[in-house]
Each structure stands twice: as structure tokens, then as C-alpha cells.
Predict the 3D structure of the following.
Amino acid sequence: MASKAATLGDPRRPAEIKKYVRSAEEGPHPLGLISLTLGVGSMAVKMKAVGWVALLVSLAAIVHIPGSHPDFKQALSSSMISLVSLGAAYFMPVPVRPGPAAAAAAPPPAATG
């Protein structure tokens, strides 16, 4: 087998080798990145206002998609994250922590003795 490969030579054609050239992609769209960040932040702290801002920024990112290189996957993911963060802010229960007002309104403990 080794002798057969030596007699045939190298199968590559050096004249047809083309150097790899990177495409002109700029990376993630800034509005989509901001929308993802705001959506995840809204989901973490359950703030409705941040969720609405994330949704508006994701819609702005969808509107400003460049025509030469549409990146629908990033636009769809940023809008879905913002919608999920709004759902988490509105429908997930927020645990109630007793604060100083709740302690002041509570009746004093009964004396035993």
C-alpha cells in the first residue's frame, strides 16, 4: 500500500489551493446583544420595566437587521428571551419577605407564666 501511494504521488493540486478568506461578518448586532442582556437581567431580578425595555430593544434590532446579512437566529433569540423575561416577571410568584412594617403590625407575643 505504501509503495502504491509513492508511485501515484501527492493527490493534492497545488495550483487549485485557495487561501481561506474571512467573510465580512461584523459579529453580533449591538441591539440584539443589548436585548439579550436586558432580557436575562429582567429574568434574574423579575423587573417588569427592564423586560419591556428588552422587548422594545429586540424589536428595534429586528427592524434594523442589515439587508446584506440577515441574522434571524439572533433576532429571534433576543425577542424570545425578552418575551420569556416578561412572562417570568408577570406570572412567576415573587416570595413575600416580612419587612419592618410587617413586624410592627404584628401583635406582641402573649406572656406566659
